[in-house]
Design brief:
Radius of gyration: 20 Å
Helix content: 25-40%
Number of strands: 12
Order of helices and strands: HEEEHEHEHEEEHEHHEHEHEH
Distance between the termini: 24 Å
Strand order of the largest sheet: 9-8-10-11-12
Number of domains: 2
CATH class of the largest domain: Alpha Beta
């Protein structure tokens, strides 16, 4: 089914939406709900396997709240990334049931999706080099949990104390996919990828002193890793890493279903 044939699935007959809200959210062809200031992609799940996620930075709290209302009515759960405490406080006035994850700078609304059947036994491993990298790591974690994935958090295992990493090697190898978050010189993903046979997604962070150049040093170090097959996201992009991990797992699950 092509994009032109996609409809705003679940909106017209969804009991969570009042008649007033339906009138204020006209649906366009192609699976779009036009709010005037934003065109909400109501067909994202059908095309890409995941619902639209709201990027909060640069939006007003009212804009986020209105977009979230549309997605929540259709999906039952909403994830908003890059949300400040001030934005969150204002959004919660509109949606009192929303939860703000301060360290991750994320806000969730509605019930978390049920866990995928296979994800508990083989979760996504989330390795964080240092405590300063946790905001990016937690953005990835909250995103994964919003996609119904289990997360094995393994914190503070940077290369400055490599014994900390080696002590967790059994937990690391039991995971299905690894997201490795690091700043400074960005060496951790290379060290990890040389110890495992599972996919490694590296996330450079902007943590570091002057010559880290806001994460550019870590980014270049990861891109130039001599460990084969390391995938690298943009600087501080925990959300993107989580999406990549989810896509890898969904592909594996699809192959299992075909068999």
């Amino acid at each position: 089914m092509g994009p032109k044939n996609l409809r705003c699935r679940g909106i017209e007959n969804n009991p969570r939406m009042s008649s007033d809200s339906k009138d204020s959210w006209p649906a366009e062809s192609g699976g779009v709900v036009n709010l005037g200031f934003a065109r909400v992609d109501s067909a994202r799940r059908e095309r890409c396997g995941r619902p639209e996620v709201i990027f909060g930075q640069g939006k007003t709290a009212e804009e986020i709240a209105r977009i979230a209302s549309v997605i929540h009515a259709q999906e039952g759960h909403v994830l908003v990334t890059r949300v400040s405490q001030e934005q969150a406080a204002a959004i919660i006035i509109h949606h009192p049931e929303a939860r703000y994850h301060a360290r991750a700078r994320c806000l969730t609304l509605g019930t978390m999706p049920e866990k995928h059947p296979d994800t508990a036994s083989r979760p996504v491993g989330l390795l964080c080099a240092g405590t300063s990298d946790l905001p990016v790591a937690e953005e990835a974690a909250i995103t994964l949990e919003s996609f119904g994935r289990s997360v094995e958090r393994i914190h503070d295992v940077g290369v400055a104390g490599i014994h900390r990493l080696l002590a967790e090697i059994d937990r690391i190898r039991s995971c299905a996919v690894l997201i490795v978050v690091a700043g400074m010189e960005g060496a951790l993903p290379s060290a990890v990828a040389g110890l495992v046979e599972i996919p490694v997604i590296a996330v450079p962070t902007s943590v570091g002193y002057g010559a880290s150049f806001g994460g550019l040093t870590a980014l270049l170090g990861m891109v130039n890793s001599c460990a084969n097959g390391v995938t690298v996201t943009n600087i501080d992009n925990g959300f993107g890493a989580a999406c990549a991990a989810d896509s890898i797992l969904r592909l594996a699950e699809r192959k299992q279903t075909i068999r």
